[in-house]
């Protein structure tokens, strides 16, 4: 690589940045010796893909559910097939934010590709597995606080310190009484 950079700096590269078949030696005048130019070309290979033919492809899609048709949900106009007995089918509603990991099935030529879901995570919905109670984060306001059992990380990050932030904007401190 250093030989190529030296050749470039000395103006010896041809169009396309390749070295000429023979290099023209450039003499340097010194009081002790004369220098010789020697071209050493080391070819570099392009790394090959590590994907193995026939290995499974996993596609990840995260976004709002646009439609639900029995066990097929649509996100960004891509159909995702869940197993008929997937418990998420009882929870997911249009508008929910869902993270899907799955394998494609269908034809790229016709454009009819369906993703067969392997992993399904509903992002804005919390479910109490012991009671079946469901809580949804509307993502737009802080008007719908979660029950104590729900982690509701997005809501808590967005809303729990909102009053303190608003107080700081209006010049109030924690030790002042609110009117």
Which SSEs are present, and which pair or pack?
Layout: H1 2-9, E1 59-69, E2 72-75, E3 78-81, E4 97-107, E5 112-122, E6 125-127, E7 134-136, H2 153-159, H3 162-169
Parallel strand pairs: 3-5
Antiparallel strand pairs: 1-2, 1-4, 2-3, 4-5, 6-7
Folded structure, characterized:
With 179 residues, the protein is of the alpha+beta class. Helix content is 13%, strand content 26%. It has three helices and seven strands. The chain has helices spanning 2-9, 153-159, 162-169, and strands at residues 59-69, 72-75, 78-81, 97-107, 112-122, 125-127, 134-136. The longest helix is centred in the first third of the chain and has 8 residues, at 2-9.
Main beta sheet: strand number and arrangement? 5 strands, mixed, barrel
Question: What is the number of strand segments?
Answer: 7
Strands of the widest sheet, in order across it, are 1-2-3-5-4
Terminal-residue CA separation: 73 Å
Q: Give the CA-based shape.
A: extended
- Helix count from the secondary structure assignment: 3
* Rg on CA atoms, Å: 32 Å
């Amino acid at each position: 690589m250093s030989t190529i950079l030296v050749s470039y700096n000395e103006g010896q590269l041809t169009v396309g940045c390749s070295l000429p078949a023979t290099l023209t030696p450039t003499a340097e005048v010194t009081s002790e010796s004369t220098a010789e130019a020697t071209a050493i070309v080391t070819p570099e290979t392009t790394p090959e893909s590590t994907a193995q033919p026939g290995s499974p492809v996993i596609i990840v899609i995260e976004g709002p559910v646009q439609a639900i048709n029995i066990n097929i949900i649509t996100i960004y106009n891509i159909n995702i097939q869940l197993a008929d007995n997937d418990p998420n089918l009882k929870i997911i509603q249009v508008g929910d934010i869902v993270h899907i990991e799955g394998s494609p099935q269908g034809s790229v030529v016709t454009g009819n590709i369906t993703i067969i879901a392997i992993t399904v995570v509903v992002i804005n919905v919390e479910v109490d597995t012991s009671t079946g109670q469901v809580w949804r984060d509307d993502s737009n306001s802080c008007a719908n606080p979660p029950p104590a059992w729900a982690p509701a990380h997005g809501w808590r990050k967005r809303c729990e310190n909102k009053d303190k932030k608003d107080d700081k904007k209006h010049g109030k401190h924690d030790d002042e009484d609110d009117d």
